[in-house]
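Interim report, section 4.2 (structural modelling).
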Amino acid sequence: MNNLATQSPSASDLANDLDFMVGDHISGICNSSLAKINSQNHCAHFVSHALNIHKKGTADCKTFTYKDKHNPAVKSSFIRVNELFNNCKKRGKWDQATTCDSYRLIFATRESNIDSAKTPPVMQDHPVKHIGIYHNGYVWHYSNTLRQVKKDLLAEWINTFTRVYADKKNPENEVVFYYGIFN
Amino acid sequence: MKHDIFKALLLSLLVMPYACTFADTPTGQDLIQILLDNKDRVISNKDGWCSLSADKPLSVEIIRVLSPHSKFEDNIQEELHYQCSDSIHENNNKAIPVWQCQIGVVETKKKDKEYFTSRSIFFSINKKSKHIYMNSIRCMD
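Predicted structure of the assembly:
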């Protein structure tokens, strides 16, 4: 984790910053060319910039194109949910998260996308996955449908992704929720 | 003189389709053809952009992107999209003018158009030769 760049704002500062981003398109948060492409999933991209976390050597918006690489205004970030999850120091099932963490990441995916036999669990790169930042009953996340940052009540967020990610042809493959903490 | 003009005209007619093919923005059909022409070339797993466990031919990625992941889920609508823009690619420390292209699929819920998943492959094509720079490939989902 030595090459994982993090900056830990206080929880209240973070909540204020996140509130300020609500309604923003990802291109208002990131100057990369990737941010201009609406067909991409920007949920991990948003979380990574909002928390100022990245890991050198992973796919990121800074190395997306030649122009991004040479543009000082483009900052590095994770762009894949599973890479963010798998780099969390602490991670596990959402209902097993400790309440003392002031904020934590929340992940939604299908059970088949998690290798829970491993400790800590590992997320695969199945495309059905989403991430948000949880604090004090709310989840801030990037809505790829609305193409903007959104703030939802936790229950609302869980209900939405339980419905959207439900695998009707294979109901045993349940929608699952995990947490992750960087530091 | 007349003969020279005729030769020049003939030459320009011969060159024109070639010039149009390589200088105009590639179409979706062009992109599919270029990818299929390069299907046996290998994507390296060195750079972290295509999360592969080992080097694999481009055909594996083409199938991953273009095969509807949710084909067994009847409430999902797939939409194929493509796009190319003028860009630059760095190859052996040289900046080369390229088309940076993307082809992919976005899946939304049929009922309320809610975003479900997306997959794309990005790659840079040399404007003159249609050569794909393998180190420009970005696998996204």
